[in-house]
Amino acid sequence: MGAWNYGVFDDDTAYDALIDLKSSSDILADMERYFDEVIQAEYIGYDEAHYALVSAAVIDSVINGFVYRCDEEDYFEWISSQKCFDFSPLKQKAVTAIGAILSDNSELRELWEENEELSEAWKADKLSMQKRLQQ
Prior knowledge:
The chain has 135 residues and is mainly alpha-helical. The protein is 63% helix and 0% strand. The mean pLDDT is 94.
């Protein structure tokens, strides 16, 4: 696992997802596809989970103003530029996708369970994002 901490952007795959979102020609459609892949999967793969979590974090930042720690140089400027989009129709799918990622059918959750030191912090971080998106 290429993770170095429990935050959404504390993983190399998360930065791949962010780069793909930043270069998207239709960010709303791509996010919806990432959420749908997770929601509909019998078993959620590592990469798919990250793409959905990064999408949810972007929505959380844009709608709720939540500030995630992110090493991407222009992340905060890019988030600001996304405020022209209406992400609210995707909030429920984000909430559902986070729940699926935290379920027994998720490779990412399984990997985090192996980390006794940080697994609870990882789970709490995702639950807090889910809670903010439910409001």
